[in-house]
Amino acid sequence: MIRLLLIGGFLGLTACTPATRLPFPTEAIDADGGARYYDVNGNGRIDFTVRAGPDGRAELLEYDDDEDGACDRRYRISDYDAARVPHLIILLDSIPFEPFARAHAEGRLWCFNAPQKVIPPFPTMSGLIFSQMLGAPPPPGMINRHYDRRRGKMDNRITKRVFGWRYPWQLRLHYHASYLENGRMFLDPRGWYPVELARIRRTLDESPDRVTVVYLASTSGLLSKYGADSLDEIIDGLQQLALQLLHDRNGAVNISIVSDHGHNLVPPERIELGKTLKAAGFRLTSKLRTARDVVFDIDGLVNYLGIHTMRPAAVADTLLARDEIELAMYKAEDSVLVRSAAGTAEIEKRGDRFRYRPHDADVLDYADVIEVLRREGAVDQDGFVQDEAWFAATVDHQWPDAPPRIWNAFHGTAMNTPDLMVTMRDGYCIGLSGFDFWIDMASTHGGLNQINSATILMSTTDRVTGPVRTRDVFSVLEPEYHP
Q1: What is the average pLDDT across 226-249?
Q2: What sign has the CA pseudo-torsion 215, 216, 221, 222?
Q3: For 136, which of 87, 169, 255, 454 could close a Cys bridge (C-beta 3.0–4.6 Å)?
Q4: The domain 2-134+173-266+449-477 is classified under which CATH number: 3.40.720, 3.40.50, 3.30.450, 3.90.25?
């Protein structure tokens, strides 16, 4: 059934891409120091000038309505009360932090403050992340197609979404594309990205609320299909949209952009794990009945896999023998074990404090981190560290904020939690074979590491002052707003 849906659905995705685009020019006619000059109406003459303030951000907007070379109207963005003007919050899909940080440092995305790092929950899957960001209930599973342990069968949300079902977090948005349109965006992301930018402009114009929240899915299609080669057009499109909105509204608008997770920018090879488990005596099935049975939560091409099994340790033993597997995690009594081919470590929780303890290997390479935390007095006598201290100490680590993220993944991030969670090394992925028929992936996500995890929060406001967790994004951007 799922294969038929995939084939039938994607064959129906060949409809023409809408032609709507932003009218604002993609490039300035000229630039002089901190000023950029634009021909907005397309007749070859300058009619709009943006001048940067001391911090390099757009500050002064000048309109030459009669195009005689003299300014007719002038607006200073900082004169507006940020708490009163409309605020557009754009949720992007799949933006890695480092390329955007470099672009801003090079003078691009100059309407915004420098990007701050956002660390999402694990696994780095959009539904989980946006549910937390928007304060929605936990989703039924980590991914669309998952095993429902209570009912003892697969829950195929792909089918439901094709026919219009939406997650609670999506109901809190002013705009998002339909599920079938989302599929088209993976086939023709370069056609759909400018369409979504134009739709966001229209959504803001039609929004009855001061805070307008939109979700832009085509960036995920661009990163998945073109990888790092798509980053420039994503950045240029966001800058074009920001200038369009500033021009439309005489500067009386705040704009913030935030993404769900990173992307590893490595073309992945899809691997099959069913045969490996079968050779070890397990049976890949869709219903958990015996100790031999293994059920995969699997749909799109990602480097994370959730597994339902009565024997998580034995399944982990089997999979960690493969070079492509990076980490395997599962609960063990009152802790969570984190394993690699090198050995095992353990994560425990006490109140709002977490303890990471290597058994026979420092799986997460945290020895130096813990030593720094000890010197700072952040480690108690039993080795536990407060939640926020873990975040501050590891935000730039290869495994950012890992103890809380791994623990929470098994304790409430989704309603149906796999018994075993596995990540693949960058360069490998797993998913239904029907997906790689339609797209040659240039990049993917799902894992725990820095490049899969860290993403951006940028704003034209001054409210973003440091790295944050996904769950805190809206309390930073709009403390009084509740989606």
Answers
A1: 98
A2: negative
A3: 169
A4: 3.40.720
pTM of the entire predicted model: 0.95
Which tokens sit at 457?
Answer: 């929060």
- Coil, strand or helix: which one is 98? helix
Distance CA 251, CA 119 (A): 31
Taking alpha carbons only, the member of 88, 125, 119, 117 closest to residue 457 is 117
How many other CB atoms sit within 10 Å of the CB of residue 71? 13
| Closest among 231, 137, 140, 215 to 182, alpha carbons compared | 215
Asked whether 90 and 199 are in contact (CB, 8 A), the reply is: no
The answer to whether 109 touches 255, Cβ cutoff 8 Å, is no
Structure tokens at 309: 């099994």
> What pLDDT is stored for residue 7 in this prediction?
41
**pLDDT for the residue 33:** 85
pLDDT at site 359: 98
Please check whether residue 6 is in contact with residue 434, taking contact to mean a CB–CB distance below 8 angstroms. Answer: yes
Mean pLDDT of the chain: 95
Give me the amino acid identity at 56: G
Residue among 108, 115, 97 at smallest CA distance from 56: 108
The residue with tokens 């832009």 is 216
Let me know: does 314 contact 294? Beta carbons within 8 Å: no
Q: Cα(first)–Cα(last) distance of the chain, in Å?
A: 36
Cβ neighbourhood burial of 466 (10 Å; 0-12, 13-18, 19+):
exposed
Cβ neighbours around 383 below 10 Å, total: 16
Rounded distance, CA 340 to CA 447, Å? 14
Q: How many residues does the chain have?
A: 483
Residue with tokens 């100790």: 291
CATH 3.40.720 occupies which residues in the chain? 2-134+173-266+449-477
